[in-house]
Specification:
By secondary structure, this protein is an alpha/beta fold. The chain contains six helices and seven strands. 37% of the residues lie in helices and 20% in strands. Keywords: CBS domain.
């Protein structure tokens, strides 16, 4: 059984909930990533911020990314997976919730330990399963 911990990109770092979207954009550029987890006190996961969120929910609305805080875009409860869960469950969660990235937490601390993206899935899962996944995520 392949686990979430085996396919994730380890070492995901959060952006603080009070940091600005401009800060987030700089971090994304430096790390060459398209999403950052948003964390509050004690590294509690509050949401996921994507480059698309910054463009559509800030810049396109005429808001200033130097003043908008990450917490303002942390909507809803983020989907997560524990690092010891089966990779097939990862795909099911992502497909069911139509998400392209999934934070990975450890057990029992529930601390963020990594992220799983479409690229991670493409690298670690059988090609036919990747095709099913992409088809399910892109359906709409």
């Amino acid at each position: 059984m392949t686990t979430a911990g085996e396919i994730m990109h380890p070492g995901a770092e959060c952006i603080g909930d009070q940091e600005t979207l401009a800060d987030a954009a700089r971090i994304m550029r430096e790390r060459d990533v398209g999403a950052l987890p948003i964390c509050g006190e004690n590294q509690k996961l509050l949401g996921i911020l994507t480059d698309r969120d910054i463009v559509l929910k800030c810049v396109a609305e005429g808001r200033d990314p130097n003043t908008v805080k990450a917490i303002e875009l942390a909507l809803g409860r983020p989907m997560v997976i524990e690092e010891d869960e089966d990779a097939e469950l990862v795909l099911e969660v992502m497909e069911k919730n139509m998400v392209r990235r999934l934070p990975v937490i450890n057990h029992p601390d529930h601390k963020l330990v990594g992220m799983i993206s479409e690229a991670d899935i493409a690298r670690h899962m059988p090609q036919e399963r990747v095709a099913e996944f992409v088809s399910a995520i892109c359906a709409e």
